[in-house]
Amino acid sequence: MLKTSTSKLIIFLLAIYFTILIYTLLDLIRYRSNLKYEKFLFKNDTVNKYIDGKNETIFRQKELINVKYFAIIVLSDLALISIILFFNIIFYKEKTRDFAIKKIKRFLNMTHLLDHTNEINSFYFVGIIFVFIFLVSLTPSLPTLNRIVVYLCYICILVCYREHFFDDYFKFFKAYLILPIAIISLVIALMLIRLTMYISFKSYKGKIPLFLNKEALKLAVNFFKKENIYYVAEEEANMMTSVSFITNILIITGEWGQYSNKEIASIIAHEIGHGGVFAKYIIFFCEFLIKTIAVFLFLKVIENLVKNLKSTIDTRKLKVFFVYLNLYILRLLLTLLNNIFSQTIEYHADKMSIKIMKNDHSLQNMLFKMFINQNNFFYLNKIYSFFKKDHPSFYHRIIALENLK
After folding, report:
1. At how many degrees (to 10) do helices 2-37 and 53-92 cross?
2. For 332-352, how does the pLDDT look when each residue is reduced to its tens digit (9 = 90+)?
3. Which end of the chain is more exposed for a tag (fewer CB within 10 A), N or C?
4. Contact at 8 Å (CB) between 223 and 272?
């Protein structure tokens, strides 16, 4: 009964994800049509008013490129999730699993890659392919040379780790409580992040750029203190807040001369809206705790699915195999949880910015200008954005800000 219920739940969740992908693809087609042919881009005039005559052509051109990019991403997601689902079904059912193993054995015999007489090698072969697919999905934005280094490291690890490829990781999660795992992960991650930040930005500490003056400078100094403002001129225009152990810091990059003082102040107010040191540590800890629980639940689902399977392969090894097969789905789950959490925080920071700036339109103007001047996306289906972006689209942020008035 448990196995049947788990299977139905997984099918239901995958059906929802497929529906989201199809809806997003249709929505992108509709949006592309609006960009190419129609006068008004959005039904909401609140957003249309920011797209004036001189910026409209640039807006349409940039968004057409973004639509093409996201359409390719959606189609890739559809293809990848279909492949993963297909292999899950094949290896879940006894008859199709036996048929697939025979074919894989024949391939291994022809290529002499592995010993085809050992059945576990068929699972090993499929497992390393899906781990590699997962690895590729993690590194699309890395430079080519960096990707090559990552893939070479993967091959080296496979060679050294082959004997332990099917070790029972489930014992680890049963032997230790979730909370200690989250705390250990949190401490290690914080140490690495702070060390990296210290090395990267220590030479930029206390530097105040010329464009940061008047109201914007006053806001920044009052909340962060002058010595905790870092400015890196070489990067693209961006602003972020973080913590250096027990100090709240503001990092500004790039040139902001094309923006008004009010607009820069609104972004600083947004960063102030992210809260102080204590709030950041609480948020960071909550993220790790949620992700750790998600991994635990993911492993429990795999365990429930596999424990009644009939196979000559040890059930413990089958569980690990299905984990490898579904690493991309685990990543999808963790990304979804992270982005829902992150986007909620961004909306809250926007709300605080409006409160600090006394309800003017500076932040909305700033968001639109940032889209025009930088390499950003303006509109993306809100539900699908949870799977891909840790920030809401500028469209949904502007709508949310206007609704506060």
Report:
1. 160
2. 888 899 899 999 999 999 998
3. N
4. yes
